[in-house]
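Help needed: design a sequence for this.
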């Protein structure tokens, strides 16, 4: 299939015809809206997201975290993030640190009791 998908998005207060004209945060919002719509229509036991919230402002990060709260009851979410607020929502955190000699080490921490 070489047809692709055509998406039209109109952020509040803008009349944009091309996704290329959107800011990074607006493009992230469009992508996440599409992803969460797919997640709702085709549920899965887990979802993996890699820094999807990196370009979001505080208001939209709050909205994203609200969706994370909704979906955590139905599925396991694995989110790669550098955002402190996203990490604060986690039941368990994993990190990779560089040790002397150039080798990396994985560290983990369970955050919420009873999870």
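Sure. Designed sequence:
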């Amino acid at each position: 299939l070489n047809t692709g998908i055509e998406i039209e998005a109109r952020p509040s207060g803008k009349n944009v015809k091309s996704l290329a004209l959107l800011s990074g945060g607006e493009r992230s919002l469009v992508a996440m809206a599409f992803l969460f719509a797919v997640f709702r229509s085709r549920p899965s036991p887990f979802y993996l997201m890699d820094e999807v919230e990196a370009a979001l402002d505080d208001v939209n990060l709050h909205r994203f975290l609200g969706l994370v709260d909704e979906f955590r009851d139905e599925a396991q979410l694995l989110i790669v993030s550098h955002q402190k607020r996203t990490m604060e929502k986690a039941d368990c955190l994993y990190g990779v640190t560089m040790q002397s000699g150039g080798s990396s080490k994985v560290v983990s921490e369970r955050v919420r009791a009873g999870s």
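The mean pLDDT is 87.
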